[in-house]
Amino acid sequence: MAITKIQSESLNLSDTYDFTGTVTGAGGVNTPAFQAYLSSNQTITEVADVKLLCDTELFDTDGCYDNSTNYRFLPTTAGKYMVYACATFTTSTDTNMRNCTLMVHKNGVRVDMFGTNYRNSYVRNPQVYGSVIVDFNGSSDYVEIYSFGDTQNNANPDIVGGTNDKAFFGAYKIIE
Fold first, then answer.
1. Residue 17, domain member (yes or no)
2. Which domain range does residue 43 map to?
3. In whole angstroms, what is the distance from residue 66 CA to residue 20 CA?
4. Fewest CB atoms within 10 A around its CB: which of 72, 87, 100, 144?
5. What's the pTM value of the predicted model, to 2 decimals?
């Protein structure tokens, strides 16, 4: 096959071209995928790792997220997935947050964490967001999100729920 050099002057950008060949190896789908959120506030025990209970699904393409029992994502297709989560922390008492963290657990073991530590200052209603790429085997690997909160006055913090922008958990397959 001969290769012809195309000069930019020879292209007429107003022309349309019919493609009659076949493209292979392109495209793909980002499924399984899901996103769920916390429907109402969830009180967590201060300075303890507590599972985030996102119970309302916005979407779940393949039914791989358990939104009522284990609150975990167990995809049935092997591959790499973008896993993301967000939580807004608050307290029901007149106190402030000192440390807020979200943790991604794969098969019960923490694989990543993201959060804030205000050390000697305190903040009201901080929001923590993060994402990580996780490799799944497509049969038994699962992922869950845990939260950790530390307050100024040793009060049990809440994760704010009720809308899909305050506390959520999601994942989707990356096209490889």
1. no
2. 31-173
3. 44
4. 72
5. 0.83
